[in-house]
Write a structure and sequence with these properties.
The protein is of the alpha+beta class and about 375 residues long. It has helices at about 5-35, 40-45, 65-80, 80-90, 95-100, 105-115, 230-235, 240-270, 280-310, 315-340, 350-360, 370-380, and strands spanning about 120-125, 140-145, 145-155, 165-170, 180-190, 195-200, 210-220, 225, 270, 275. The chain has 3 domains: about 5-115, Acyl-CoA dehydrogenase/oxidase, N-terminal domain (Butyryl-Coa Dehydrogenase, subunit A, domain 1); about 120-230, Beta Barrel (Butyryl-CoA Dehydrogenase, subunit A, domain 2), CATH 2.40.110; about 235-380, Butyryl-CoA Dehydrogenase, subunit A, domain 3. Keywords: FAD, Flavoprotein, Oxidoreductase, Plasmid.
Length: about 375
């Protein structure tokens, strides 16, 4: 196993760091408070090759490996989680097109995302179906050379800013197998009958757009089907090991960003005639924070490497990484606020935002309880 960041990507990460300091951090709190999608930053990120970085060169990307994407994800989320989620989620749904889509679909939908001209999303969850993906009720019926889609999708990242979505639909309610009657279909947001209602008041990740999608007799061409009909559920399940390692990398970045700010604050803030870092209680907090971050980093990168190499234990490791790194993110951001004291309770300091942003890493892409169930299942199988 080799988790060392290659020299070429170290240069990329340094460029990302400078981009973050100059362009992202100055407006991060403002975008969070206004729940504003950072369109200008997205354009700059696309110019730097940060969007769709895993796409092959022929489709506008730079062909990053999963481990290279994990390095990039950690770096971005250590700068500002909300903006980082916008950048890393602009290509949501692309994995299905890359793995199962036609060449025409790849040529049509991927390059505009990589260049920043389009935003896409994956529409899976519904008001009554979050972790239980097989309970979705959105229907797609074939009508000649069209699919007619009806239903609601909930908690959809990029929902009100996206240009197209890979939508998981039920296409065969009478399928003999429980998971065999679902398909993935590309739906453009400018289709008649498509509507999106932005969800506001989120606890964190407020710069990132989240919406409910309403599909009312939305008609799309038959060729918008991704892969085989009724194979959508199984297609989707193939990506959870990858996406969970990416959430682990997100959580790792959040924890690191909060810890670095807490360390800096502790070295500057004076109380009782010395800096906070001179107190053993603060030293112990910092020691535990950075130790847990390093443990999360090793587990996250090992899991990412395992998924990429196709190891037999990649499912359990990706769930372990997601569960542990997200727990570390919540714990570390909590301690970062504690070190800041009253200053950490207001948005004058970044740790307040990091604290709120951390929680979602324990919820999306499979809640903590789901991850523990998967780990136990793999152990007992």
């Amino acid at each position: 196993m080799e988790f060392e960041v290659p020299a070429e990507q170290r240069a990329v990460l340094e460029e990302v760091r400078q981009f973050g300091e100059n362009e992202i951090r100055p407006v991060a709190s403002e975008n969070d408070s206004a729940e504003r999608y950072p369109y200008e930053i997205m354009e700059q990120a696309a110019e730097l090759g940060l969007i769709g970085s895993q796409f092959p060169v022929e489709h506008g990307g730079v062909g990053y490996s999963l481990l290279e994407r994990a390095f990039l994800t950690e770096e971005l989320f250590a700068i500002d989680p909300g903006t980082a989620l916008c950048i890393t989620s602009a290509d949501f749904g692309s994995e299905a097109i890359l793995a199962f889509g036609t060449e025409a679909q790849k040529e049509t939908y991927l390059p505009p995302v990589a260049t920043g001209e389009a935003i896409m999303g994956a529409a899976i969850s519904e008001p009554q179906a979050g972790s239980d993906v097989s309970s979705i009720a959105t229907q797609a019926e074939r009508d000649g050379d069209k699919w007619v889609i009806n239903g609601n999708k909930m908690w959809i990242t990029n929902g009100s800013v996206g240009d197209y979505f890979v939508v998981l639909c039920e296409t065969n309610p009478d399928a003999e197998r429980r998971h065999g009657g679902f398909s993935q279909i590309i739906v453009e947001s400018d289709r008649d009958g498509f509507d999106a209602e932005k969800i506001t008041g989120k606890m964190g990740m407020r710069a990132s757009d989240t919406a409910e999608l309403i599909l009312n007799d939305v008609r799309v061409p038959a060729e918008n089907l991704v892969g085989e009909v009724d194979g959508g559920f199984y297609q989707q399940m193939q990506f959870f090991d990858e996406t969970r390692t990416m959430v682990a990398a997100q959580a790792l970045g959040i924890a690191r960003g909060a810890a670095e700010r807490a360390l800096e604050y502790a070295q500057e803030r004076e109380q009782f005639g010395q800096t906070l870092s001179g107190f053993q209680a603060i030293q112990h907090k910092l020691a535990e924070m950075f130790t847990n971050i390093e443990a999360a980093r090793q587990l996250t990168y090992k899991a990412t490497w395992g998924v990429e190499e196709g190891h037999d234990d990649d499912t359990s490791l990706s769930s372990m990484a997601k569960e542990f790194a997200s727990r570390v993110a919540v714990d570390v951001t909590n301690e970062a606020v504690q070190i800041h004291g009253g200053s950490g309770y207001v948005n004058d300091f970044d740790v307040e935002r990091f604290y709120r942003d951390a929680k979602i890493s324990q919820i999306y892409e499979g809640a903590t309880e789901i991850q523990k169930g998967i780990i136990a299942r793999e152990l007992l199988s």
